[in-house]
Every structure is written in C-alpha cells, then in structure tokens.
Amino acid sequence: MLIVPIASFSEDTYQVVELNALHNNYQFLEVLAFPTKQFGHDEPAANGTEVMNELSHVRPGNKFKPHFHLFNIVDVNGRSEHPLFKFLKNSKLKTANATRALYFCDGFKKFDKIYFSTDEKLRDVRKIGTRDHCIPTRDEFANVRELNYSPLKSKDIRWNFEKFLINKHGHPIIRYDSKSRIGDIKKDVEHDYFS
C-alpha cells in the first residue's frame, strides 16, 4: 500500500499520472491519496468532488481519472491531523534490511543513532531513520507562511506528495520525499512484495 497526501494545484500534481501507472503495473498495490490544504494553498477545492473535477479538467486535465483511491480533504499535520497520518509519522520500523536506502525509514541492526547510507549508484547520501519513528525526509520546513497548520513538529510531513510505503504485513517501512522518483518506489515495491 502507498499512502500519499496530494494537492491538485501543486507543482508536483503531475505525480498523479505516475501513481496511476504505478497502480496499473502493480495491481496488488493499493494507492490511497488524501488531498490536503496544508501546504502552499495548493488545494483550492472544498471537497473530494471538487478535487476530482480539478484533476479531470485542470491538472493534469485531459479527462484524467485516478485508478487509485481518492479520499476527501484531510489535515496531515497539526492539531487536527488525521489519525492515519499521526500513526504513520509515529510508527516504529518493521524491517531490518540494510541493503537499500532511498529517502526512507528502514531498520538497521543497530538503532541507537540516526543512520545514513548512499543510494545504489553512490550519487547521494540520504537519511534513513531510527527504531522509534519514521523521520522526516527533510530537516527544514518550507516557508512557514505557506504552511496552513500549527503547531509545527519535527515528524511533520513536509509537503504534498510525500509518500509512505506500507509492507504486505501492514507496517510502514519507507517514507519518501515529495520529489522521490516513482522508479525508486517501484524497486522498493518489488523488493518488499516479491522477496
């Protein structure tokens, strides 16, 4: 399962097309999209029906129809955060695979520190996580004037299209940055579901 906070007027809205393709390639993978108004005023809709109309007629347009589950607008951070997102951000890690590292929270044999690793091509060093919670994908927050919630917490989702991969046993295992490539997610889906 992949859980994604989205917004129809975000610079990352193109990712809904990629989410459709991901679901089409892996029909067993449930993709759950939750529109939110908490980042940069990127979601002008008042309800889920308006979000659907925006996706179909404006961004990405061309009569786009999601092949994933699209829910009503929720808060993913702050005082009124949806319980699902509170659970995801506070989840303990459920895997001990130390061989891959792509913007995610994944378990290591030693849990007393935050660990770092490089991706497969050694292009970039990325933060992994701790045993106690799925750490944010970025240290910094966006411009605070563009965040429509309070209080700010260290575990908060940083922007629309940050993603959580849930393994076949129902445990959150990977937290992706909003800019993560769907190709990285495909590799992790294959690793988790086919190994």
Automatic annotation (TrEMBL):
GO BP term, example: response to oxidative stress
Organism lineage string: Eukaryota, Metazoa, Ecdysozoa, Arthropoda, Crustacea
Annotated GO CC locations: extracellular region
Keywords: Oxidoreductase, Peroxidase, Secreted, Signal
Family: Belongs to the glutathione peroxidase family.
EC annotation from Swiss-Prot or TrEMBL: 1.11.1.9
Organism: Artemia franciscana
GO MF annotation list: glutathione peroxidase activity
The protein's name in its UniProt record: glutathione peroxidase
Superkingdom of the organism of origin: Eukaryota
The reaction(s) this protein catalyses: 2 glutathione + H2O2 = glutathione disulfide + 2 H2O
